[in-house]
Structures are given as C-alpha cells and as structure tokens.
Amino acid sequence: MALGILILRLAIALVVVAHGTEKLFGWLSGGSLEAAGRSFEKFGFRPGRLHALVAGVAEVVGGLLVAAGLLTPLGVAAIVGVMAAAVGLVHLRNGFLAQSGGYEYPLLIGLAALAVGFAGPGAWSLDHVIGWSLSGVAWGLGALALGLVGADAVALTRWLSSRSKNRAKAVRVERPGHRRLAA
User: Fold this and answer.
1) What pLDDT, on a 0 to 100 scale, did the predictor assign at position 176?
2) Max Cα separation, the chain?
3) What is the chain's percent helix, strand, coil content, to nearest 5?
4) How many whole angstroms separate alpha carbon 100 and alpha carbon 105?
5) What is the pLDDT at residue 1?
6) In DSSP terms, which residues pair with 175 in a beta bridge?
7) Which of 20, 72, 120, 131 is deepest in the core (most CB within 10 A)?
8) What is the enclosing helix (H) or strand (E) of 96?
9) Spatial contact of 104 and 110, defined as CB atoms under 8 Å apart
10) What's the pTM value of the predicted model, to 2 decimals?
11) How far, CA to CA in Å, does 3 sit from each of 6, 109, 122, 145?
12) Whole-angstrom Cα distance, residue 134 to residue 84?
C-alpha cells in the first residue's frame, strides 16, 4: 500500500508542479507569469497576474508538499482549492470532457489529491518519518474544507473585481429633467 500511495502522490505532484511552474516561470510552454496573467484576465480574474501568481504558488507548494508527504493535508488543500476553482469558474460551462474544455481533468486531479488527503501519505513520507499520523476522515474533510474555502475566496475576488469593473464603466449622465446611467 505504501508504494501505491507514493506513486499516486508523485503522479499528482508531477502534474500540478508542472502547471504551477508553467504559470510562474514559463517552463514547458515558454510562456511567462505575464502571459499566464493575460490568460487569467480572459477568464475574468483581475488582476490576472496576481491570480496567476497565487494559483502557480499553490500548485508548486501544494505539489511539493504532497510529493514529499510533508504536511500532506495542507498540500492536498492547496491542490483541491486550485482544482475546485478551475472546475467551478472556468471549465464547468464547457461540459465534462476535456477535449471540449470541460472539467474532467481538474476534477480528476482534485479528487486524486483528496484521496491522498483521506488515505494519508503512507509509510514512505516525511509525515511518517516525523511521526505524524495525518490520515483519516477528519484530515481528509479538513483538507477538503480548507481547499473549498480557498476556491471560494478566488470566486469572491473574481466576482468583486467584475462588479468594480462594471461600476467603473458606468458614467453618470445628467440632462435637464432626466437622469440615467450610461455604460
């Protein structure tokens, strides 16, 4: 069982750390944080660069914690938060299948990380070496709750930035005897 959990942890980490470093440093795709920020802005995340930075850091740190099996529920929460935000705020409207921009891929990564949160990092982990027993229903639910709080915070900042952008576009136009808002 320890080998199976280790393989799962390393697979999750490989994928999320790769995506995080792509956002932060442009590795693999040749992009940059600025390019990731522009992409985030297209999806309504403003400021895009800040949202890309937060997502990239969460993916890299979360992935490295899960890979090492260190503070595993915290790493799982970071991954679950990023993937829940990706599912709910970007991919859900495109349906299930990834080939049409759907949510199957971030859902799978998020659920795989959550499985590690419930099962724990296994015997081949730093948590185990230190003597921490961070597995079970309570740790899994805690990681899920913390991840969803993070995703909700991202959704809230996206909503607030869209409201302030819309308000900034509205200009008060006054005419004698007539008041209205024009966009």
Assistant:
1) 56
2) 78
3) 75, 5, 20
4) 11
5) 83
6) 178
7) 72
8) none
9) no
10) 0.88
11) 5, 19, 8, 27
12) 22
Rounded distance between C-alpha atoms, residue 103 and residue 151, angstroms: 15
Using only C-alpha atoms, the chain has a radius of gyration, in whole angstroms, of 20
2-9 average pLDDT score: 97
Chain-wide mean pLDDT for the chain?
Answer: 91
CB atoms under 10 Å from CB of 59, counted, come to 27
How many other CB atoms are there within 10 angstroms of residue 172's CB atom?
Answer: 8
What are the residue ranges of helices labelled H in 43-136? 48-68, 72-86, 104-119, 126-130
The separation between CA 51 and the C-alpha centre of its own chain, rounded to angstroms, equals: 10
On the question of pLDDT at 172 being above 50, the answer is no
The Cα angle at residue 93 between residues 89 and 95, in degrees rounded to 5: 125
Contact 49, 34 (CB under 8 A): yes
Question: Which uninterrupted H or E stretch holds 178?
Answer: strand 178-182
pLDDT at residue number 30? 67
Which residue shows structure tokens 């599912």? 87
Contact (CB, 8 A) for 110 and 83 = yes
